[in-house]
Design a protein that fits this description.
- GO terms for molecular function: zinc ion binding.
- It is a single chain.
- With 341 residues, the chain is α/β, with parallel strands linked by helices.
- It has three domains: 3-169, von Willebrand factor, type A domain (Rossmann fold, 3-Layer(aba) Sandwich), CATH 3.40.50.410; 189-236, no CATH class; 249-340, no CATH class.
- The chain has helices at 3-6, 18-36, 62-70, 81-91, 118-127, 142-150, 161-169, 236-246, 298-307, 311-315, 328-340; strands at residues 42-48, 51-59, 101-107, 130-136, 155-157, 189-190, 193-198, 206-211, 218-219, 224-225, 232-233, 253-254, 287-288, 295-296.
- The longest helix is centred in the N-terminal third of the chain and has 19 residues, at 18-36.
Length: 341
């Protein structure tokens, strides 16, 4: 077997190298993951020399994960899919039953050098209710496809570095939770207040810490588990950002021709988002929000989906039931204020 084909992480067909492309994509994925999943935890592992090293512990600290990725050593030796899955299964063993156990593998190798039967490890991951996905910078491997199929994940192959990054960032958005994998459960959470605490030996040196509402212990980062009473600590901003994925906006629908007429029949109604009047030649598709009835052009509708808030409900211009200040817009307005804080 050609060693270059077995260990292609140092190959330079992707500039500057495949290993550098994987590290850069992993760093972007960490930032996007915590932006989309503020209450989730992450751990970074690396395959090298036939083993799997844990670069960072399972935590919600993006900075520690980014520092671990920046300090990763150059690639060497063979990759072992079996050891990587075993390390991931061990790291995710303490995840509560209501949480999803997901593994995303960014690979550039064309082989797996395993000490035992990798199929047994794949079956163990499936029994542990783990969902494993693979994004490959090389050709698709049969063992990766088998892993994705048995754990209900995805196996994707990139065409180039840009496509590789796009496929990886597509896994940042939380997937729909399957009832058999993550049953619903109520948990206790605390919302700590910030306070100044003296740190170090210098005079006047103080850092902001989060005070647990139950036992008054201090936590430096959020979200976190209180070291004294085991209470889950989070902020209202993180809850609001998680709310967007639990209750996504309804999709806009095509507006009927009669809805394009402005009040009183004087001209055509403008777009609620940008205020521009609809032009038949320019705006062939006009959309209407089902929750409030306002009209939007395609560009404003796409932008509104990225904000996770309905512009008609927020402005109170909705003409249908549920819109305005007393309807659905009231809750969405509060969410928007939290996100913008």
């Amino acid at each position: 077997c050609d060693p270059a084909a077995r260990r292609p992480a140092g190959a330079t067909d992707v500039r500057p190298s495949r290993a550098a492309a994987c590290c850069a994509t992993a760093a972007s994925l960490v930032r996007e993951f915590f932006d989309q999943n503020p209450l989730s935890h992450l751990s970074v592992l690396a395959m090298r020399d036939g083993a799997c090293a844990r670069l960072s512990e399972l935590s919600a600290s993006a900075e520690s994960h980014l520092a671990a990725i920046r300090a990763v050593e150059p690639p060497s030796g063979d990759a072992s899919l079996q050891n990587a899955l075993h390390a991931a299964r061990t790291a995710l063993g303490a995840v509560p039953t209501y949480g999803l156990r997901e593994v995303l593998m960014l690979v550039s190798t064309l082989s797996s050098c395993d000490p035992g039967d990798v199929n047994k490890e794949i079956s163990a991951c499936a029994r542990a209710k783990m969902r494993a996905s693979v994004v490959s910078l090389s050709a698709e491997m049969y063992v990766c496809r088998t892993l994705a199929d048995k754990t209900k994940g995805k196996c994707e192959t990139a065409l180039d570095a840009a496509h590789f990054r796009s496929l990886a960032l597509g896994h940042a958005k939380p997937p729909a939770a399957l009832r058999e994998l993550a049953p619903a459960s109520l948990i206790q959470m605390g919302f700590p207040k910030q306070a100044a605490a003296a740190m170090g030996g210098g005079e006047g040196e103080a850092n902001a810490v989060n005070v647990c509402p139950r036992c008054r212990a201090h936590a430096t980062d959020l979200p976190a588990i209180c070291a004294t009473c085991d209470l889950t600590l989070a902020s209202s901003l993180m809850m609001a950002r998680s709310y967007h994925h639990l209750f996504p906006l309804p999709r806009s629908e095509l507006a009927p021709p009669e809805a394009l007429l402005a009040a009183g029949g004087a001209g055509r109604a403008p777009c609620t988002g940008c205020g521009e009047a609809f032009d038949g030649a320019r705006d062939e598709v006009v959309l209407r929000r089902p929750c409030c009835g306002v009209l939007l052009c395609v560009a404003c509708d796409v932008y509104m989906q990225t904000l996770h808030n309905c512009v008609g409900c927020l402005s109170g211009d909705g003409a249908m039931d549920g819109g305005g200040a007393d309807g659905i817009g009231n809750g969405q307005a509060a969410t928007a204020m939290d996100v913008g804080a």
